[in-house]
Structures are given as structure tokens and as C-alpha cells.
Amino acid sequence: MGPIVIDIDPVIFHIGHFSVGWYGVSIAVAIVAAFSLGLREARRKGIPEDEIYSMGLWAVPAGLIGARLLHVIDKWSYYMANPLAALAIQDGGLAILGAILGGSIAGFGYARRRGLSLGRVADAAVQIHGGNGYMLDYRVEQFLRDVRLYRLYEGTSQIQQLIIARELLKEHSRTR
Fold first, then answer.
1. How far apart are the first and last CA of the chain?
2. What is the distance between the alpha carbons of residues 43 and 176, in angstroms, rounded to a whole number?
3. Which residues does residue 15 pair with via DSSP β-bridges, in sequence order?
4. What value does the CA radius of gyration of the chain take, rounded to a whole number of Å?
């Protein structure tokens, strides 16, 4: 059995020298979906919609810059030999982790500068990224959120996670 080959042209259509590719469309759809989910979560958390739109004006470009920057760092030897190629974003090369990091830094920086509750903003962001959110009164909920954010759960069973949670709760109650 040979490899699976999907023979789809990466370019959807051309308008003169400008081409629209599937990757760009998927990024645009992801940004629209994130805004949609972000607005829904912001309403639930009491964050004004205008703040989410304004935050997005900072987070989206910062995410694109972060995505390109992390890609360039990852392929440093190539870009050291070809420094102008680092600016040729149209030739491809974005790193999703850089986008998340860049957008998050800009979003949290915006929230802090505007005096928004970082906890509420972080909670909305965790919800968008598929987390459980953050409930101040429930230490187990904090643990589950932290486990998902830091991926501590990989390779551990649910029983091991509960044991870790129990120990963290004991430690927390001793420090109070």
C-alpha cells in the first residue's frame, strides 16, 4: 500500500498576479471563527464588544507577525543566508504557535492597558481554545484548566490526574 496522495491545487483562483490559496482562506476562516467565539464569550463574561473588536485590531496583526517570526527562527540557517526571504510572506512560512503567542501577547497587553480584567479576558481566551475556563471558587476547576493549558495530562491516567489534583489542593489549603 503506497502513500495517500491528495492532488489539490493549493491556489483556489488568480486575479492577475494575485492568487488566493486554500491556506490563506483557512486562516481567514479561523480568524472569523475566533472573533465569533470571542464575542460570544465576551458577552458572557461582561466584556464590552467594542473592546473585543479593538483588541482584535492589535491581536490579528501581532499573530501574523508572531507566526512569521517563529517560522523564521525555526528556519534560522536558511534565513541567515537569505535575509530578504524573511519578508516574503507570500511564499509561505507561518508557525501556528507563533500566531497564538503573538496574538495572545498583544491581546493581553491591550487588555491590561485598557484596564480590562485579565482573568475575564484569559477565561474567554481559554474557552475559545477549547479549555474549561476558570472559576475562582473551584480549585479543581483551576487544576483542570492548568493541566489543559500546560498539557500535563499527556501520559497520565485520570486516576493520576486526580491524585495530582488532591495533592495540589492539600498544598493550597496549607498555604492559606
1. 61
2. 33
3. 18
4. 21
Q: Residue 129 — φ and ψ, nearest 5°?
A: -85, 10
Mean per-residue pLDDT of the chain: 80
Helix (H) or strand (E) segment spanning residue 13 = strand 11-15
Q: What pLDDT does 172 receive? A: 66
E strand or H helix that includes residue 164: helix 158-175
Dist CA 176 CA 169 (whole Å): 11
Evaluated on CA atoms 95, 97, 103, 105, the torsion sign reads: negative
Q: Is the pLDDT of residue 59 over 90?
A: yes
Q: How far is CA 116 from the centre of its chain?
A: 19
Cβ-proximal residues to 58 (8 Å cutoff; 6+ apart), any chain:
106, 107, 109, 110
**Residue 46 carries which DSSP code?**
T
* Cell numbers standing for residue 137: 471558587
Question: Contacts by 156-161 with C-beta closer than 8 Å and gap 24+?
Answer: none
Residue type present at position 97: L
DSSP 19-52: EEEHHHHHHHHHHHHHHHHHHHHHHHHT--HHHH
pTM of the model: 0.65
